[in-house]
Write a structure and sequence with these properties.
single chain; 150 residues; mainly alpha; membrane
Length: 150
């Protein structure tokens, strides 16, 4: 008799199912889910916290040269929102000083920003290129600034 003919009567076991998962896989899936939720919450919180930056960038980008007087006001709002408290007597000089410290503005842009903040529009004497460069520098500062509380 042949050995293979004896195997004909054996019943093969069912294939092992991948479901339900073993406890180790449940722990791993739970850890991945918790980490994903944590990362999503942090990103959402960071996105909400930087909404003032997006609004300020949109306002600065819409400014024309005739509306340049609004530039220091926008910078002041960004500064105060990021601080959550600021001494009113220090504005706007503290913002201009901080902008200078963080971005090392060229002397021309620094003096132009001070003229816009403190002088009448007829004394600004700015070119269209100078104003555009100032806007670009301001947008860069708004996007990148990190302010330590006073």
């Amino acid at each position: 008799m042949d050995d293979i003919s004896q195997l004909a009567g054996l019943i093969m076991p069912e294939q092992v199912s991948w479901w339900p998962l073993a406890i180790g896989w449940w722990w791993l899936l739970s850890a991945i889910f918790i980490c994903s939720c944590f990362v999503a919450m942090r990103r959402w919180h960071r996105w909400q916290q930087s909404s003032y930056r997006r609004e300020a960038v949109a306002q600065v980008e819409q400014l024309s040269q005739q509306q340049a007087a609004q530039l220091p006001t926008i910078l002041g709002k960004v500064y105060t929102v990021s601080l959550h408290h600021v001494c009113a007597a220090k504005w706007p000089s503290s913002v201009l000083e901080y902008l200078q410290q963080q971005h090392a503005l060229p002397a021309e842009q620094q003096s132009l920003l001070q003229r816009i903040a403190f002088q009448a529009p007829e004394r600004w004497s700015m070119t269209a290129d100078g104003f555009e460069q100032l806007k670009q520098t301001t947008v860069a500062w708004i996007k990148e600034h990190r302010i330590e509380p006073i």
